[in-house]
Design goal:
Layout (H helix, E strand, L loop, with lengths): L12 H4 L4 H7 L6 E4 L6 H12 L3 E5 L5 H14 L8 E5 L6 H13 L3 E6 L3 H4 L2 H5 L2 E4 L5 H14 L7 E4 L3 H7 L3 H13 L4 E4 L1 H9 L10 H15 L3 H13 L4 H16 L5 H16 L4 H14 L5 H16 L14 H5 L38 H14 L7
Parallel strand pairs: 1-4, 1-5, 2-3, 3-4, 6-7
Helix pairs in contact: 4-5, 8-10, 9-10, 9-11, 12-13, 12-14, 13-16, 14-15, 14-16, 15-16
């Protein structure tokens, strides 16, 4: 079902409609190296293959899961052999480029920079974090969006009419809502489910919502990494940890692991949770979550599941506080309402003599010059001097912080 012409490509109209920059680059055969960023099953690989087809360029494909630096260099060497005279550079397509470590990505730099190859990388992860800055600065990033209902229905019709296997069946399509729902905006998942629905009926096939629901329930390992179920499961996991139930936390963790969820996605959620829901009640929770992410990157799966389990249990059993989360929310609301605020003179930087003459930094009290490295002075603009943003949570760690603040600041941080 992969497209062979620009007109056959379904979805991503913001990239592929007539007159768009990407479509114009394809039609003129003036391709930049590019990163295609989007969730699974939205057409990244299909688009890369289509670009090669339309521009009549040789293409070499690598999977970042299976390839090393040696494979990258070999692919570049082969690309050099395929380029003759003034022909356009061959395309090097790297699927899941975010899984390449820095050394593997660095191996691409010279070839991309010199124009030996035109790189097309596909990633489900934010390239700002997963692709090194040197390679990213030499590439155009195109964002692919989850497929909408209209696009998914078009794909269903195309499959029933054009697919060799499906077109041989006597299929009556009555309803598509369930197919669309369980696809989660993922064309690959949609086609897999459509095939499964047809396989499980006899000669005359009727596709309706009831039958699709039945097929999905009979295949509980179908884990939707892009749609509603994906978000429901991660929500259940977060709420179980927040609620202090390690049994439930490990159960939902196992559900995600068995469904093939990206371990880094789970780890990122635990890092956020450690700061948002545990926070200052147990500052070590954030260290633990960060260590879990680093460990996953270093050793991978399946062993990484043990580290994620340990972390999830630790986070679930930790005392909880959302005081830091509430504090930054309140501070941002204040900042948005008031607009620009002048920094008090005594807090300003004074790197030049002119600034010193203008009283920048004057009357600033250097805390280390005072007993216990503290002295009272205002650190806020005058109109906000009585502002109270941080409100400690009721837990042993923050109770100690509360007492220390009251000792230093007296009434300003008196929460009683």
């Amino acid at each position: 079902m992969r497209p062979f012409t620009l007109e056959d490509y379904v979805g991503q109209s913001h990239l592929m409609e007539a007159g768009s920059p990407l479509r114009a680059a394809i039609e003129k055969n003036q391709l930049p190296s590019m990163i295609l960023w989007g969730p699974p099953g939205v057409g990244k690989t299909s688009l890369a293959l289509l670009i090669a087809e339309v521009t009549e360029r040789p293409i070499t494909s690598l999977s970042a899961i299976e390839s090393g630096v040696k494979d990258v260099r070999e692919a570049i060497k082969n690309a050099q052999k395929k380029r003759f005279f003034d022909q356009k550079p061959p395309i090097l397509f790297i699927d899941e480029i975010h899984r390449f470590h820095k050394g593997q990505q660095d191996a691409l730099l010279g070839a991309v920079e010199s124009g030996v190859v035109t790189l097309i990388g596909a990633t489900t992860e934010n390239p700002s974090f997963e692709v090194n800055s040197a390679l990213l600065s030499r590439s155009q990033v195109y964002v692919l969006e989850p497929l909408d209902v209209e696009t998914l229905n078009t794909l269903i019709q195309n499959a029933l009419e054009k697919d060799d296997w499906l077109s041989k069946h006597n299929i009556t399509l009555k309803e598509t809502e369930a197919l669309v729902k369980y696809s989660g905006g993922d064309a690959r998942r949609l086609y897999n489910l459509l095939e499964l629905v047809v396989q499980q009926q006899d000669e005359e096939v009727v596709i309706n919502n009831e039958w699709v629901e039945k097929v999905v329930k009979q295949n509980p390992t179908l884990y939707d990494k892009g749609g509603e179920y994906h978000y429901d499961v991660i929500s259940a996991f977060i709420k179980s940890v927040r609620g202090g139930d390690p049994n439930a936390a490990v159960y939902w963790l196992a559900k995600m692991i068995e469904g093939g969820e990206d371990p880094k996605f789970i780890c990122r959620r635990m890092i956020i949770l450690a700061a948002e829901d545990i926070g200052l009640a147990n500052p070590n929770a954030l260290l633990m979550a960060n260590t879990c992410m680093t460990s996953i990157q270093n050793i991978g799966m399946p062993e990484g599941r043990i580290i994620m389990s340990q972390t999830a249990i630790y986070l679930a059993c930790s005392p909880k506080s959302n005081s830091a989360y509430l504090a930054i929310n309140q501070a941002q609301q204040i900042v948005r309402k008031e607009g620009r605020t002048d920094v008090p003179l005594h807090l300003r930087n004074a790197p030049s003599q002119l600034m010193k003459e203008l009283n920048y930094g004057k009357d600033y009290l250097y805390p280390h010059d005072y007993p216990n490295n503290f002295t009272e002075q205002s650190y806020l603009p005058d109109h906000l001097k009585n502002l109270n943003i941080y409100k400690p949570g009721d837990n042993p760690t923050e109770n100690k912080l509360k007492a220390a603040l009251k000792t230093r600041w007296h009434d300003k941080y008196d929460y009683d």
